[in-house]
Amino acid sequence: MPFSSRVQARGVQLLLGRMMSRVHKDLRFTDIPKRTEALRVETGAGPVACTVYRPPTATGAPAPVYVNFHGGGFVVARPEQDDHICRYIAAKAGCVVINVDYAVAPQRPFPVPVNQAYDVTAWVAENGAAHHWDGSRLAVGGHSAGANLTAAVCREARDRGTFTPRLQILDSAPLDQVADPAAKQSPIAKPLLTPQLMRIFTAAYVPDPAELAHPLVSPGLADDLAGLPPALVINAEHDRLRDEGDAYAKGLEAAGVPVTHRVFAGVDHYFTHTGPVAAGKEAIDLMATTLRTALTV
User: Domain 3-295 is of which CATH architecture?
Assistant: First the structure.
C-alpha cells in the first residue's frame, strides 16, 4: 500500500473516529437497561475484544445469539457506535448480542478482518454452553463495512460447513469493491459517502488491486449464492451503495435464498445512527423483529 494511501487512511481514522461514535440522541434507547460484559476471543488472526449484551430480563434457558459487526469503512474501529442497536436487539429480540471489535486497516488489511469475524462467529457458535447462550440459534449482521463482513462470514460458514446462521442482516452493505465509486450514483447532490472517501477505504482495506474481486471482498460479484442463510437486506434510497445492495438481494432471491428486502425512502447511508429518527427506529425495529422470528425455536 503506497505511503500516501496509508497516511490518508490514518487521517480518516483520526478525523472520523470520534464522529462515528456519535448517535442521534433520540436513537440511543437510553430507556432500555443495559447488561454488558467484556469478552476476549482468541482467533487465528489475533485476539479480539467483544462486548456481550444480555437481555434486560434474565431467563432460565440460554438465549439465542446475534453477532454484530460495526461499520467504519474497514478503517474506523468504533464498535460503540452500535451500542444503541445492540441494546435494542438484546431487549426486543430476546437474544444475547456479541458486538465485535475486529481489527481495521491500514494496520490490519484484508484478510485479517474477515478471518477475525469468521473465527469469532465460529467460536460463539461452539461455546454457548459455557457462556449461557444457545450457539445453535445464531444470527449475524452489521452495518456498512460490518455488513460486508457479515456476507463474507456467511460464505465461509457455508463453504466450510461449520455453522449455519439462521439470519444475516445486511444494512447498507458495500458489496462491489471493483466498481469505481464515482460510478455509484445517488439521487441527491451530496450524499454522505464521497468517491474520494470510498477510494481511501478500499485502498486501505484491500491494498492489492488483484484481490478486489475476491468473493470475500466483493460478495456482490459472486455468482454462487445458493445455500447462504436467509437475509434481511436494508438499503437507504439516497445511499451510493443502494444499487449493489438491491442487486445482492435480487441475486440471493434468484438463488433460492429467503430474503426480506427493504429500501427506506428519503434517507442516506448511516441513517440507523444519525436519523432521520423515525426511519432509523423503524429499521432497527425491523432488525429486532426479524431476528426474533428467525431465532425462535
Answer: 3-Layer(aba) Sandwich (3.40)
